[in-house]
Amino acid sequence: MKILILPASLRKDSLNRRLGTLIRHELEARGAKATLADFHDYAMPLYDGDLEQSSGLPDGAKKLAADLRAHDALVLVSPEYNYSIPGVLKNAIDWVSRERPTNAWKERPILLCSASPAGPGGIRGLWQLRIPLEGNFAHVHSPMFALSQAHEAFADDGSLRDEKLHKMLRDMLGGFIAYASALNG
Question: What is the total count of domains within the chain?
Answer without folding.
Answer: 1
